[in-house]
Design goal:
Elements: E1 7-11, H1 15-27, E2 31-35, H2 38-47, E3 51-57, H3 66-76, E4 81-86, E5 101-104, H4 109-121
Parallel strand pairs: 1-2, 1-3, 3-4, 4-5
Length: 122
């Protein structure tokens, strides 16, 4: 059952990956916001108080990576659910917020959708 009002922020610097997962999430009924780095993500979070999940890559250009972004999101927007993904970096124990989820790349979009729904229903 799609969460028609659930809003997801996807943060990914690789344009094709960003478009692919954003389209898949939209097809599943989510409202999707897209950012290519953490700075743009923060601006979107400040502008849209309806964002309930952030799905972020670790390695990206800008002032912070996905790990630092997840910490900033937890501090400023505690209710936002966090999923961090990477094909290169596996976060060290304790690097993610306590309820943050790590998903290695390559991921299946169906697994991302399932994880988001589980977090929203937790």
């Amino acid at each position: 059952m799609p969460h028609l009002l659930a809003s997801v922020l996807v943060v990914e610097d690789e344009a094709l990956l960003l478009m692919a997962i954003a389209d898949e999430l939209r097809d599943e009924g989510f409202v999707v916001h897209e950012a290519s780095n953490a700075d743009k993500a923060i601006k979107l979070l400040e502008a849209h108080d309806t964002i309930s999940v952030i799905f972020t890559d670790v390695d990206m250009p800008g002032s912070m990576d996905g790990i630092k972004l997840s910490a900033a999101v937890r501090r400023r927007w505690p209710p936002v659910k966090i999923i961090v993904t990477s094909g290169k970096t596996i976060p060290q124990l304790g690097a993610l917020p306590p309820d943050g989820v790590f998903m290695p790349k390559p991921y299946m979009s169906s697994h991302v959708v399932k994880t988001i729904r589980a977090l929203l229903n937790a």
